[in-house]
Design a protein that fits this description.
The protein is α+β, with helices and mostly antiparallel strands and 152 residues long. The chain has six helices and five strands, in the order ββαααβααββα.
């Protein structure tokens, strides 16, 4: 006798066994359906990673990370002066997203007026060699890429 363990949480009913069967479906004789499921699962995972990469590799995020790496902890105004063209709103949004991702820490000092400093976290520091390699690659290959664009 097969039991379906049903977990109800408000508006959801989840059949745990059915979920497990769908994940393992590629082992059955219906390989096409199973491979579609696995492909969908892999596509979902790749979309998650691409989301992370797009947030890290945005124009302002890269520049903020490089500024914090070069200068250490910085105040909001100092970051804004370092990056001339960035608006206050874009700097705020980008710092919040970097803070959500655990790359930048925000420290508020209990002073009047309040002082806030931003610094790289351990995860952000771990990312910086990769960012620097990417920047060095862009510097080394920039002229050839620009020549190729002029020809096109």
């Amino acid at each position: 006798m097969r039991k379906n363990f049903r977990r109800t949480s408000g508006n959801r009913n989840i059949l745990i066994q059915d979920f497990i069967q769908r994940i393992c479906h590629f082992h059955t004789t219906r390989r096409i359906i199973g491979s579609r499921l696995i492909f969908g699962f892999i596509t979902h995972i790749l979309k998650c990673y691409l989301n992370i990469l797009s947030r890290i590799s945005s124009k302002w995020a890269m520049l903020i990370l490089l500024a914090l790496d070069a200068n250490g902890a910085m105040r909001f105004g100092a970051i804004q002066k370092c990056l001339d063209d960035i608006s206050q709103r874009m700097l705020t949004v980008t710092l919040r997203s970097l803070e959500e991702d655990g790359l930048v820490s925000r420290r508020v000092f209990p002073e009047v007026p309040p002082r806030v400093e931003y610094a790289l976290t351990a995860r952000g520091t771990e990312l910086m060699p990769l960012v620097k390699n990417l920047v060095n690659w862009a510097i080394a290959n920039g002229p050839a890429i620009l020549k190729g664009r002029e020809r096109a």
